[in-house]
Predict the structure.
Amino acid sequence: MTIETHLKKMRWRDRLSAEEEQAIRWSVGEVVTEPTDKVVVRAGEELKQSMILLDGWMARVKDLPNGQRQITELHVSGDYTDLHAFALKRLDHDVVTLTRCRIALVPHERLREITERLPHLTRVYWAATNIDASIQREWTMSLGRRSATERMAHLFCELDVRLGIVGLVDNGRYDFPLTQAELSECLGLTPVHVNRTLQDLRSKKVIEVGDRQVRILDLKALRSIAQFDDDYLYLEKRDR
Amino acid sequence: MTIETHLKKMRWRDRLSAEEEQAIRWSVGEVVTEPTDKVVVRAGEELKQSMILLDGWMARVKDLPNGQRQITELHVSGDYTDLHAFALKRLDHDVVTLTRCRIALVPHERLREITERLPHLTRVYWAATNIDASIQREWTMSLGRRSATERMAHLFCELDVRLGIVGLVDNGRYDFPLTQAELSECLGLTPVHVNRTLQDLRSKKVIEVGDRQVRILDLKALRSIAQFDDDYLYLEKRDR
DNA sequence: CGCGGTGTTGAGACCTGTCAAGACGTGTGG
DNA sequence: CCACACGTCTTGACAGGTCTCAACACCGCG
């Protein structure tokens, strides 16, 4: 995968001019590879660049003093994992790899230049961070109001859509490299209960999870369990 | 309260030039008053303006098809309640009043002009929406990993800081107009359990809640219960 | 061959939810 | 001024979802 994956995702929601696409390509500096389970960005540190994930899975993680962890968002190919760091300068959470990852680094200096010269692209990227926030809002709702089964079904629906956008879903099947422990950190559950909830979904014959991949057997039923509505993913073109 | 409250909050995190402050003042159009419990913005509708809350309390609410509700963020005087609507054009949640509110309306046309002419102010506002997202992330963490008592303590710590910024805390005391039912929608609990959790905090002699106000008796203990750390509120000046 | 990480299962505890009833305060209308 | 309705807060008994702790199976890998 290349930076084209990121462009593909951006084009899903906005019409980008040739100049803007060129600016995006120009903004990318070094491409690096990071191993599994590496804390790529640590909460609080001063940041001079942001990252576009080309290949692999990453996550935003918040730590509690007592050692508990909450994953607040998952990132897949084509995602800007910490574009918000450009405006914030430091983050309130870690950014970690969940698999081996290829990452394109974007110096903030270049993003700054985009905000100086390309107001429309700036608004588009602004919207991108807002959509991240929207996803987080949906997770908040899941944690507050959905049962374990619903919450899990919802996550798999979300990933189905987000991976679909960048062509990573094949016939209801997609790679899913998280361990049950990591999944439990997304869903606010214990690993044991994640295991039981997976069995519940499996027994309902809507989804199979295992072997580092997800297989959706009955998307309609899965969405119905999750009360899933993709509005919050803003999959539409708008003038910005 | 006037638009000055909003400026006060902005100045907490950024040095604004005279031109930028003027642009903010210029951006404000009509000021309107809305009654309690009004849905001011409904999820999905096309938006042409955003709102700065001058007086009162508002909230972002997400509805589930089955009628359950989750409040994903509370807004107080000086907050932009839906600045993200500028880039997104529609929202994935409602924005509602919790009290009688005075609201300044800001046409998106003027925000657009700011993004065309004032890149620094644009980055500052971009950061503002990112801080909203950070608050939401912290709520996600609360819902995922903190117990009812911790979660509630955390919320009251957060409000203590956020209201303090705009001068609405007097000696550990601040107005708090939410009903226990509304509080339960913030915390992902039932109203009954909110009642019991309040009694728990009260019996620990750290806080008293009632009569539409909060009185913090022992801030240190409250913060310790909540494992509160205000990093996520970004209360520092940075060059953007 | 043994080890660590991951997944699975069982029993019991605990936190939070559900349901129901009553107390209290406030505003309204007779 | 009283009667009443309504929203809010409070309490109790019980149910249920999720957690805790512990043990074991499985597997890839050194």
In short: The radius of gyration of chain A is 18 Å. Residues 179-181, 191-192, 195-196, 199, 210 of chain A lie near DNA strand C (CB under 10 Å from a C1'). Chain A touches chain B through 53 residues (CB under 8 Å).
